[in-house]
Design brief:
alpha+beta; acyltransferase; two-stranded antiparallel ribbon; 4 helices; 191 residues; acyltransferase activity, transferring groups other than amino-acyl groups; GNAT_dom; Aminopeptidase; Acetyltransferase (GNAT) family protein; seven-stranded mixed sheet; Bact_Acetyltransf; 26% helix; globular
Length: 191
């Protein structure tokens, strides 16, 4: 599939609201489960990436922030979400878990994802350091073990494998593995 000729939009993030659930659900399932863009996992996992209930729970959870990059035309949001990222602050562990990171396939490769990830990292670092903890904060995330190109992307961003390996969840909320032995690998970055 060829990428449309799009210029890179200005990235504006805001905290997601319950009215965004349908658009976020569409974006996350498209980016992870449809065979479009370079970040999809369609060859590894079939079915859904997430549910509306899971997104609602993230939006409503204290110290769990879901940021949305809304499409804006003529100064107004259209209702479409072009990117998102979640930051789960675990202050007692001086850790923030980053997940639900997605950029619409038409914008991939334009630097939008780098900007969204940088904003989430900055937010998490400031939030954790605001708790007067003298130790460095850790940012963590997980990726599928069979995604070497994604691992390379995060390694270029300063993340390293931390030795954690978990079996792919088989709760029905994240799709069904197409391969046996699919694992999630833990990554971390100290800020």
């Amino acid at each position: 599939m060829s990428k449309p000729n799009m210029s890179r939009p200005n990235v504006f993030l805001r905290q997601a609201a319950l009215e965004d659930v349908d658009s976020l659900l569409s974006l996350l399932n498209q980016c992870y489960r449809e065979d479009v863009g370079w970040t999809n996992e369609a060859h590894l996992v079939e079915g859904i990436r997430t549910t509306a209930q899971e997104i609602e729970a993230v939006i409503n959870a204290p110290r769990h922030y879901l940021f949305a990059f809304p499409e804006v035309k003529q100064g107004n949001e259209t209702g479409k979400i072009l990117g998102c990222i979640a930051v789960d602050i675990k202050a007692e562990q001086n850790n923030a878990y980053i997940g639900m990171f997605a950029v619409h396939p038409s914008l991939q490769g334009l630097g939008v994802g780098n900007e969204i990830l940088q904003a989430a990292e900055t937010f998490a670092g400031r939030h954790l350091k605001a708790d007067d903890n003298p130790h460095k904060a850790r940012l963590t995330m997980s990726i599928l073990s069979q995604r070497p190109e994604l691992l390379a992307y995060y390694q270029r961003r300063g993340y390293q494998l931390n030795g954690e390996r978990l079996p792919f969840p088989e709760d029905g909320n994240n799709g069904e593995p197409k391969l046996s032995g699919l694992e999630l690998l833990g990554l971390e970055k100290v800020v």
